[in-house]
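REQUEST ID: PR-0412
SUBMITTED BY: lab tech R.K.
PRIORITY: routine
TASK: structure prediction, single protein chain
INPUT:
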Amino acid sequence: TAAPGTHLTFFELNPGVVRLARDTSLFQTLSGCAPDAAVHLGDARLTLERVRERYHLLVLDAFSSDAIPTHLLTREAFALYRERTEPNGIIAYHVSNRFLDLAPPLGALAEESGWWAVQSLSAARPEAPALGPPEVSTTVIALAADSGSLHGLVASGYWRWIEGSGRPWTDDWTPLASALRLGRAAVFGK
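STATUS: complete
OUTPUT:
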């Protein structure tokens, strides 16, 4: 159950996911932990533009498939996230991906905005808790305007500070090839 005073809001593109999450014969997490959670259907970026709430923690969890929604990683999207985040809040991106390293563009967004960025180390540290096989290790990048909001993560030993690399992606410029993990890429054809 969510702690008293905790308000959860979900933004979900797929109405089928919402139906499944609310089907208590299949899952009890939503009904048991956050039965009063608001759910907004539609593209998260577009829907978030219409919502005027500010959040202490904004979690983006849309990047694990092979086709990622790059429009959620741009300068313009980040400006919206900053508007919807409390001054001491955190924006966390779950960016686990077999083929793309999304830390450099997110680090560049943080650097350009004067924010701080940290990356989880579960895949890089053998003593870190295993969250899955190496091919699907979990990677989270957290950004905050106040470095103090992230110090606890770094102090845990499971996170490290990251810096920007290159220029931030924009709605008009998203060079996906720059994020390729070349050791994992395969090219088919002649």
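NOTES: The radius of gyration is 17 Å.
REVIEWED BY: pending
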